UniProtKB/TrEMBL annotation:
InterPro entries xrefs: B-phosphoglucomutase_hydrolase, Beta-PGM-like, HAD-like_sf, HAD-SF_hydro_IA, HAD_sf, PGP-like_dom2
Family listed: Belongs to the HAD-like hydrolase superfamily. CbbY/CbbZ/Gph/YieH family.
GO terms assigned for molecular function: beta-phosphoglucomutase activity; hydrolase activity; metal ion binding
Protein name: Beta-phosphoglucomutase
Catalyzed chemical reaction(s): beta-D-glucose 1-phosphate = beta-D-glucose 6-phosphate
Keywords for the protein's UniProt record, in alphabetical order: Carbohydrate metabolism, Hydrolase, Isomerase, Magnesium, Metal-binding, Phosphoprotein
Domain of life: Bacteria
SUPFAM superfamilies according to UniProt: HAD-like (SSF56784)
Cofactor needs: Mg(2+)
Amino acid sequence: MHPRPPGKPTDVTTLGLPGTIAACLFDMDGVLTETATVHAAAWKETFDAFLRRRDGPGFRPFDAVEDYDRYVDGMPRADGVRSFLASRGIGLPEGGPDDPPGHDTVQGLANAKNTLVLKKIEELGVHAYPGSVRYVRQVRAAGLRTAVVSSSANARAVLDAAGIGDLFDVRIDGLVAAERHLPGKPHPDTFLTAAQELGTPPERAAVFEDALAGMEAGRSGGFGHVVGVDRTGQAEELRRHGADVVVTDLDQLLGDPS
């Protein structure tokens, strides 16, 4: 991260933001980097393996679109496990943080998912959305401060692999949240912490999210503007969960005063 003193913003309406906004808080997976599909695939492989062990060949598989969006997207890993299992009426022991993949505990499934994600990222690499990079660069050129707010414990490695780590003044990720005992999305605490570290009150910060849990965090945190990024055709759901505006790519906001 690259802290800097706040600059004097230019006309931020050219960024599609209200004139009061002085800082931008970006989710990572699905907003900045093309990793949401990797996470969805890893969740599906993890949950399907568990459900197959539990229910046999006739198990009801994890839906990598609907179940992912509704129950796990944007949440810390263990919270995602609990959320999805609750949707199926399944209870598991919590287990411990060192439970290996294959242990049918909350922590075991969370660790299995993380192992798969890291493997897929190593195999496939990490790519940033060009429109998002273009937008973040314009945000910084306008003098606004920037932060990444992600539930991922791998955020630093992902940002560096995508070559965009230097575009953000602050990073609040899964590791920081664990160290500071911050509840994850849909709670607003990680976004509020990022705004605080940027020296910006929530009402002068904009949140950029693709997850329904992130929309709820933006709404409940009292942020000045919440942008929903629709990569999967869930624009109406994003609006219902708190988005002030929905785009399919961030550079659609450039030059848009609405």
